[in-house]
Amino acid sequence: MITLKKTNSTNIDFINLVKNLDAYLKVKDGDDHSFYNQFNDIDMLKYVIVAYHNDIPVGCGAIKKSSSETMEIKRMYVSPKGRGNGIGTKILLALESWTKELKYTKCILETGIVLSEAVALYKKNEYQIIQNYGQYKGIKNCICFEKYL
Description:
Layout (H helix, E strand, L loop, with lengths): L1 E6 L4 H18 L3 H5 L9 E7 L2 E10 L4 E9 L8 H15 L4 E7 L3 H9 L3 E3 L11 E7 L1
Protein backbone atom coordinates (compact mmCIF):
# COMPACT_ATOMS: atom_id res chain seq x y z
CA MET A 1 0.00 0.00 0.00
CA ILE A 2 1.25 3.49 -0.91
CA THR A 3 0.86 6.24 1.68
CA LEU A 4 1.91 9.87 1.39
CA LYS A 5 3.14 11.99 4.26
CA LYS A 6 3.24 15.79 4.36
CA THR A 7 6.38 16.95 6.12
CA ASN A 8 9.34 19.32 5.63
CA SER A 9 13.00 19.06 4.71
CA THR A 10 14.06 17.98 8.22
CA ASN A 11 12.38 14.60 7.72
CA ILE A 12 15.09 11.90 7.79
CA ASP A 13 13.36 9.78 5.14
CA PHE A 14 13.29 12.79 2.80
CA ILE A 15 16.95 13.54 3.51
CA ASN A 16 17.94 9.95 2.71
CA LEU A 17 15.85 9.86 -0.47
CA VAL A 18 17.47 13.12 -1.61
CA LYS A 19 20.91 11.57 -1.04
CA ASN A 20 19.88 8.74 -3.37
CA LEU A 21 18.51 11.26 -5.85
CA ASP A 22 21.75 13.24 -5.82
CA ALA A 23 23.81 10.08 -6.39
CA TYR A 24 21.54 9.16 -9.33
CA LEU A 25 21.75 12.67 -10.80
CA LYS A 26 25.52 12.78 -10.44
CA VAL A 27 25.72 9.83 -12.83
CA LYS A 28 23.02 11.14 -15.22
CA ASP A 29 24.28 14.76 -15.27
CA GLY A 30 27.96 13.89 -15.59
CA ASP A 31 30.15 16.99 -15.80
CA ASP A 32 27.12 19.29 -15.45
CA HIS A 33 26.16 17.94 -12.00
CA SER A 34 27.85 20.66 -9.94
CA PHE A 35 26.01 23.37 -11.91
CA TYR A 36 22.57 21.85 -11.28
CA ASN A 37 23.33 20.78 -7.72
CA GLN A 38 23.84 24.36 -6.55
CA PHE A 39 20.10 24.97 -7.00
CA ASN A 40 18.98 21.94 -5.00
CA ASP A 41 19.58 22.89 -1.38
CA ILE A 42 16.90 21.34 0.84
CA ASP A 43 17.50 23.32 4.03
CA MET A 44 14.50 25.60 3.62
CA LEU A 45 11.84 23.38 2.06
CA LYS A 46 8.66 23.74 4.13
CA TYR A 47 6.42 21.63 1.91
CA VAL A 48 7.64 18.07 1.33
CA ILE A 49 5.84 14.86 0.41
CA VAL A 50 7.37 11.47 1.21
CA ALA A 51 5.82 8.35 -0.32
CA TYR A 52 5.93 5.05 1.54
CA HIS A 53 5.28 1.55 0.26
CA ASN A 54 4.44 -0.68 3.23
CA ASP A 55 6.12 1.86 5.54
CA ILE A 56 9.34 1.94 3.46
CA PRO A 57 10.21 5.36 1.98
CA VAL A 58 10.23 5.05 -1.82
CA GLY A 59 9.74 8.57 -3.20
CA CYS A 60 9.62 12.25 -2.52
CA GLY A 61 8.95 15.70 -3.90
CA ALA A 62 8.68 19.24 -2.63
CA ILE A 63 7.33 22.66 -3.51
CA LYS A 64 8.76 26.06 -2.76
CA LYS A 65 7.49 29.55 -3.45
CA SER A 66 8.65 31.01 -6.75
CA SER A 67 6.31 34.02 -6.95
CA SER A 68 3.06 35.26 -5.43
CA GLU A 69 1.10 32.83 -7.62
CA THR A 70 3.64 30.09 -8.40
CA MET A 71 5.22 27.17 -6.59
CA GLU A 72 8.28 25.43 -7.99
CA ILE A 73 8.40 21.65 -7.80
CA LYS A 74 11.73 20.42 -6.47
CA ARG A 75 13.48 17.16 -5.56
CA MET A 76 11.10 14.73 -7.29
CA TYR A 77 12.41 11.19 -6.94
CA VAL A 78 11.19 7.61 -6.86
CA SER A 79 13.62 4.86 -5.89
CA PRO A 80 14.35 2.18 -8.51
CA LYS A 81 12.34 -0.39 -6.52
CA GLY A 82 9.34 1.95 -6.46
CA ARG A 83 9.29 2.88 -10.14
CA GLY A 84 6.55 1.73 -12.48
CA ASN A 85 3.86 1.83 -9.80
CA GLY A 86 2.47 5.34 -10.34
CA ILE A 87 4.23 6.72 -7.26
CA GLY A 88 5.68 9.69 -9.15
CA THR A 89 2.21 10.69 -10.32
CA LYS A 90 0.79 10.33 -6.79
CA ILE A 91 3.53 12.58 -5.39
CA LEU A 92 3.06 15.12 -8.18
CA LEU A 93 -0.72 15.25 -7.70
CA ALA A 94 -0.27 15.65 -3.93
CA LEU A 95 2.12 18.55 -4.51
CA GLU A 96 -0.36 20.17 -6.89
CA SER A 97 -3.14 19.76 -4.34
CA TRP A 98 -0.98 21.30 -1.62
CA THR A 99 -0.15 24.17 -3.96
CA LYS A 100 -3.87 24.86 -4.40
CA GLU A 101 -4.48 24.60 -0.63
CA LEU A 102 -1.83 27.29 -0.17
CA LYS A 103 -3.72 29.50 -2.70
CA TYR A 104 -1.15 29.33 -5.51
CA THR A 105 -2.38 28.87 -9.07
CA LYS A 106 0.59 27.46 -10.97
CA CYS A 107 3.46 24.99 -10.66
CA ILE A 108 6.73 25.27 -12.53
CA LEU A 109 9.70 22.95 -12.63
CA GLU A 110 12.97 22.19 -14.32
CA THR A 111 14.38 18.81 -15.22
CA GLY A 112 17.22 17.52 -17.34
CA ILE A 113 16.60 16.57 -20.95
CA VAL A 114 18.46 13.30 -20.28
CA LEU A 115 15.88 12.35 -17.62
CA SER A 116 13.43 10.87 -20.12
CA GLU A 117 11.27 9.22 -17.44
CA ALA A 118 10.83 12.55 -15.66
CA VAL A 119 10.00 14.36 -18.90
CA ALA A 120 7.42 11.68 -19.71
CA LEU A 121 5.90 11.96 -16.20
CA TYR A 122 5.39 15.71 -16.52
CA LYS A 123 3.97 15.49 -20.05
CA LYS A 124 1.60 12.70 -18.96
CA ASN A 125 0.37 14.96 -16.16
CA GLU A 126 -0.38 17.85 -18.53
CA TYR A 127 2.67 20.02 -17.88
CA GLN A 128 3.51 22.30 -20.79
CA ILE A 129 7.05 23.05 -21.93
CA ILE A 130 8.00 26.69 -21.36
CA GLN A 131 11.05 28.85 -21.91
CA ASN A 132 13.76 28.08 -19.41
CA TYR A 133 13.37 30.41 -16.45
CA GLY A 134 15.66 31.96 -13.84
CA GLN A 135 19.01 30.27 -13.45
CA TYR A 136 18.12 27.79 -16.22
CA LYS A 137 17.89 30.42 -18.99
CA GLY A 138 20.23 29.55 -21.82
CA ILE A 139 21.06 26.09 -20.43
CA LYS A 140 20.62 23.62 -23.30
CA ASN A 141 20.39 20.47 -21.19
CA CYS A 142 17.43 21.78 -19.14
CA ILE A 143 13.77 21.63 -19.96
CA CYS A 144 11.23 23.67 -18.00
CA PHE A 145 7.52 23.05 -17.56
CA GLU A 146 4.46 24.76 -16.11
CA LYS A 147 0.93 23.80 -15.21
CA TYR A 148 -1.94 26.06 -14.24
CA LEU A 149 -4.01 24.43 -11.53
